[in-house]
C-alpha cells in the first residue's frame, strides 16, 4: 500500500495547454465536422475584431482544400492591420493570452483561447505546424513563420521564419494576416456547416465582404459563397467601462481594495466603479458604517462584506452604454436581405438594459415569405456579440424566449403553443453584452438569465406585431382588390348588354361602383431614385364610399442622425421621432389623394417598406388606426430621454469637483462636506405596453 509521501510525490502540475490538449471538446473540436467550423470561426472572429479596431472595412477570404483521408487544409486571409513580428508567437501559441479579458466592453472574443486552439488541434491531429504571414503597414516586409505549440510550457515553437515581400494575385499586400493549417476534419454542407456559419456572419456584419471557396482532392470547386458588404458604415467604437457595483463579488471587491491607489474610500468608489456619484459613495459608506477617510488597503473582510451589502441598498446610476455596439435596425434588414430572400422584414433594437451590473442590448429581426420553407419550423439565427451560435439551439436562452411567445396570434402556426412555430419565416436574435454567459467553453448557447429572457421576449412581441400588421394589411388588400376587380368586370358587362337590349346609352357606373365597394383603400410604396440617391415614399388614399371623408394620415420613416426629409409638398407635422402626420380635410366620393415625401441620407436597400396609420371615422384598408394612448407614452419617453441627456452633461462645477476629488489630500486639512451638484437622475425606464395591450390599434387578441 502506498504511503502518503508516495502519493504526494506523484502530484504534478499541468499547464493550461496540456489540459485543453486532453479536453479539446471544450474548445469545439469534439467531432471532425465541427472541427473545421470551429477553426474557421476563430480565424474569422479575430479578423473582424482586428479590422474593426483599426477602422478598416473587412475583406475576408476562406479557402478549404480536401486532402487524402480525413484531412483538409484551411486558409484564412484578411486585410486587417496585421500582427507585429514580436507578437505573432504569443497570439498563436499561448493560451489565456488576450487584450480583452479584463476590458469591460462588447467584444467577440474574451478568453484568449480561440486561435491557439486551432494551432494545437492541427498539431495534435496531423503533426503539422501552422504557417502564418503577417504584414503591418509600417514595415517594409512581411513576416513568414511556421508555428507549433509546446503544451507543457504553454508557448509557441517557431521555425522557418523569414522576412519578405508578400504578394497576393500579383499585388503587394499593404497590411493583413494569412494563416494556413492542415487538420483532421470533414467538410459537410447543410445547416451546420462552414457555409452556413459564414452566411450567418455576413448577416450581422453587413460591413464585411466574406468569400468562401471549397475544393475537393482534385482541386475542383465543390462549394462556394460570396457575401459582399452592403454598407460602408463600420460598427461604432466601443468604450471600455468600469465595473458596476451590482456585478461585484466579495473576492473581487477585496482584490480591488488591496490593489487600490486611492487614499480614501470615497475616491476608491468613484474612481473604480461606474454608476457611483459622490452622494452615492457617501451613502454606501454610511450604510456600511465605514469612515469616508479610511484607506482602502486597510479594509478587513467583514467590512468589505458590509460595503458589498450596501451596494444593493443604495440607488445607483446604470452603467454607461457606450460599451455596446448594436447592429441597428436598418443594417439588420440589409444583412438579412443579402442572405435571405423574403417579402417582409420587421426589426427592433431594444433600449440597453442591465443584468447583474452588466449592460446588454437585444436586437431581433423577423423575415417572412419569399423562398423560405412554409412546411416546417421557422429558421432561428442566434448571435452573441455578432458571432453566430450554431449548436445546442434547444438549450439556448434565446430559443426558450422565442418559444415562450404565442405565435399563433401573430399569424404563424404554433401547435399547442409549444416548441418552435411553423411557417415561411426566419427570426434573428442578437445579444450584445459586455459579459455573455455561455453554457460551455465552446460558446454555443447562452445560459439562463431572467432579465435577458424578458428583453428577448419583449422584442419578439414587437416584431410579432409587425408581422401581424403585415398579414392583416395583405389580407385586407387582397380581398378589396378581388372585390374591385370582380365589380369592374361584371358590372360593365351587365351595363353594356342592358344598354344594347334597351337601346340606351351606357350609364356612368362610378357612383354604383362606389356604393358597392363602400370602402376607403390605401396603397403605399417606397422606391429608390438612383439619380438623386434618395428614397421616395408615396401614399395614395382612394375613397370608394358614398360620402366625403376626412383623415389624418401618419407614416413611419427612418428618422435618425444624418437622415432627413427633404421634399414634403403637403407639409404636415412631426408626431414623434420617426412618425409624420398629414391632415386630409376633404376626400370626396370617388376621389383619391396622394401624400409624397422624399428622404435622403440612406443608401439603396436601407428602407423598402413603411407602416401607415390614420385618425378619423371609418376604417382604411391598408392602414391601422393609431393608438393615441401609446403615441402619448412614446412622446413622454422621448421628451424625458432628451431631458435626461441634457441633465447628464457635465458642467464646470462638476468637472472641478472631480478634479479636486482626485487631488492628494493635504495633511491637517479636513474636507468640508458638500453635495454633488452634477449627479444625474436615474435613467428613464422604457415604456412598453403589456402583451395584451393595444399596440397602434392592434390588440393581440384581435381576430384576423
Quick recap of the structure?
With 704 residues, this protein is α+β, with helices and mostly antiparallel strands. The chain has 16 helices and 26 strands.
What does this structure look like?
It is globular, with a radius of gyration of 31 Å. 30% of the residues lie in helices and 24% in strands. With 704 residues, the chain is an alpha+beta fold. Strand 9 (209-215) and strand 10 (221-227) form a beta hairpin. The strands form 5 sheets. An 8-stranded mixed beta sheet has the order 5-4-3-8-2-1-9-10. Strands 11, 12, 13, 14, 15 and 16 form a 6-stranded mixed beta sheet that branches. The chain contains 16 helices and 26 strands. The termini are far apart.
Mass-distribution shape: globular
Tally of strands: 26
Return Rg in Å.
Answer: 31 Å
The CATH architecture of the largest domain would be 2-Layer Sandwich
Tell me the structural class. Answer: alpha+beta
> Describe the biggest sheet?
8 strands, mixed
Query: What are the segments in which pLDDT stays under 50 over at least 5 consecutive residues?
Result: 96-102, 650-704
Would you state the CATH class of the largest domain?
Answer: Alpha Beta
Count of discrete domains? 4
How far is the N terminus from the C terminus? 79 Å
Mean pLDDT figure = 81
- Largest beta sheet: what is the strand line-up? 5-4-3-8-2-1-9-10
**CATH level-3 fold name of the largest domain:** Heat Shock Protein 90
Percent helix, as a range, is 25-40%
Number of helices: 16
Q: In percent, how much strand structure appears in the residues?
A: 15-25%
CATH superfamily of the largest domain: Histidine kinase-like ATPase, C-terminal domain
Amino acid at each position: 500500500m502506498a504511503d502518503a509521501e508516495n502519493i504526494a510525490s506523484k502530484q504534478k502540475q499541468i499547464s493550461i495547454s496540456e489540459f485543453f490538449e486532453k479536453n479539446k471538446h471544450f474548445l469545439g473540436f469534439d467531432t471532425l465536422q465541427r472541427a473545421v467550423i470551429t477553426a474557421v470561426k476563430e480565424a474569422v472572429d479575430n479578423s473582424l475584431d482586428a479590422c474593426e479596431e483599426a477602422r478598416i472595412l473587412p475583406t475576408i477570404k476562406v479557402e478549404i482544400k480536401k486532402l487524402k483521408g480525413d484531412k483538409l487544409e484551411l486558409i484564412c486571409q484578411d486585410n486587417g492591420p496585421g500582427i507585429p513580428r514580436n507578437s505573432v508567437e504569443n497570439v498563436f501559441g499561448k493560451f489565456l493570452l488576450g487584450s480583452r479579458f479584463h476590458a469591460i466592453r462588447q467584444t467577440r472574443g474574451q478568453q484568449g483561447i480561440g486561435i491557439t486552439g486551432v494551432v494545437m488541434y492541427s498539431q495534435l491531429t496531423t503533426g503539422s505546424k501552422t504557417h502564418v504571414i503577417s504584414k503591418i503597414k509600417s514595415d517594409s516586409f512581411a513576416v513568414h513563420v511556421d508555428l507549433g505549440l509546446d503544451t507543457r510550457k504553454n508557448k509557441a515553437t517557431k521555425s522557418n521564419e523569414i522576412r519578405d515581400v508578400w504578394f497576393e494575385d500579383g499585388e503587394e499586400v499593404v497590411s493583413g494576416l494569412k494563416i494556413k493549417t492542415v487538420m483532421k476534419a470533414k467538410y459537410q454542407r447543410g445547416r451546420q456547416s462552414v457555409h452556413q456559419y459564414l452566411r450567418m456572419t455576413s448577416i450581422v456584419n453587413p460591413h464585411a465582404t466574406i468569400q468562401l471557396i471549397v475544393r475537393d482532392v482534385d482541386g475542383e470547386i465543390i462549394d462556394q459563397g460570396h457575401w459582399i458588404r452592403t454598407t460602408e458604415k463600420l460598427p461604432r467604437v466601443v468604450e471600455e467601462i468600469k465595473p458596476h457595483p451590482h456585478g461585484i463579488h466579495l473576492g473581487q471587491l477585496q482584490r480591488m481594495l488591496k490593489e487600490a491607489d486611492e487614499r480614501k474610500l470615497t475616491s476608491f468608489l468613484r474612481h473604480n466603479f461606474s454608476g457611483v456619484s459622490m452622494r452615492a459613495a457617501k451613502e454606501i459608506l454610511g450604510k456600511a458604517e465605514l469612515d469616508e477617510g479610511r484607506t482602502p488597503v486597510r479594509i478587513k473582510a467583514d467590512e468589505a462584506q458590509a460595503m458589498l451589502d450596501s451596494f444593493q441598498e443604495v440607488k445607483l446610476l446604470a452603467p454607461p452604454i457606450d460599451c455596446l455596439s448594436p447592429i441597428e435596425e436598418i443594417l439588420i434588414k440589409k444583412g438579412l436581405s443579402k442572405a435571405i430572400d423574403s417579402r417582409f422584414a420587421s426589426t427592433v433594437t431594444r433600449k440597453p438594459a442591465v443584468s447583474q451590473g452588466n449592460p446588454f442590448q437585444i436586437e431581433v429581426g423577423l423575415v417572412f415569405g419569399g423562398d423560405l420553407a412554409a412546411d416546417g419550423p421557422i429558421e432561428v439565427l442566434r448571435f452573441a456579440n455578432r458571432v453566430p451560435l450554431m449548436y445546442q439551439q434547444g438549450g439556448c436562452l434565446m430559443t426558450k424566449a422565442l418559444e415562450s411567445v404565442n405565435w399563433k396570434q401573430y399569424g404563424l402556426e404554433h401547435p399547442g403553443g409549444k416548441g418552435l412555430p411553423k411557417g415561411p419565416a426566419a427570426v434573428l436574435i442578437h445579444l450584445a453584452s459586455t459579459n455573455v454567459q455561455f453554457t460551455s467553453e465552446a460558446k454555443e448557447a447562452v445560459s439562463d438569465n431572467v432579465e435577458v429572457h424578458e428583453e428577448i421576449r419583449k422584442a419578439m412581441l414587437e416584431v410579432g406585431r409587425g408581422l401581424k400588421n403585415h398579414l392583416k394589411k395583405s389580407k385586407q388588400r387582397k380581398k378589396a382588390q378581388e372585390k374591385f376587380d370582380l365589380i369592374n368586370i361584371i358590372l360593365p358587362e351587365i351595363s353594356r348588354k342592358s344598354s344594347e337590349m334597351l337601346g340606351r346609352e351606357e350609364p356612368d357606373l362610378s357612383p354604383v361602383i362606389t356604393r358597392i365597394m363602400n370602402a376607403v383603400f390605401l396603397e403605399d410604396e417606397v422606391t429608390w431614385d438612383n439619380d438623386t440617391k434618395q428614397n421616395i415614399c408615396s401614399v395614395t388614399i382612394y375613397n370608394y364610399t358614398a360620402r366625403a371623408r376626412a383623415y389624418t394620415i401618419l407614416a413611419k420613416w427612418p428618422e435618425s442622425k444624418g437622415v432627413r426629409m427633404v421634399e414634403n409638398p403637403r407639409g404636415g407635422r412631426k408626431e414623434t421621432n420617426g412618425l409624420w402626420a398629414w391632415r386630409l380635410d376633404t376626400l370626396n366620393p370617388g376621389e383619391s389623394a396622394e401624400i409624397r415625401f422624399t428622404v435622403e441620407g440612406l443608401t439603396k436597400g436601407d428602407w423598402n417598406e413603411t407602416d401607415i396609420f390614420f385618425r378619423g371615422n371609418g376604417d382604411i384598408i391598408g392602414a391601422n388606426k393609431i393608438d393615441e394612448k401609446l403615441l402619448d407614452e412614446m412622446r413622454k419617453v422621448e421628451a424625458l430621454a432628451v431631458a435626461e441627456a441634457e441633465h447628464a452633461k457635465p458642467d464646470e462645477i462638476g468637472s472641478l469637483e472631480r478634479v479636486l476629488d482626485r487631488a492628494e489630500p493635504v495633511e491637517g486639512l479636513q474636507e468640508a462636506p458638500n453635495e454633488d451638484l452634477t449627479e444625474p437622475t436615474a435613467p428613464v425606464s422604457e415604456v412598453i405596453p403589456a402583451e395584451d395591450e393595444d399596440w397602434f390599434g392592434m390588440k393581440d387578441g384581435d381576430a384576423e
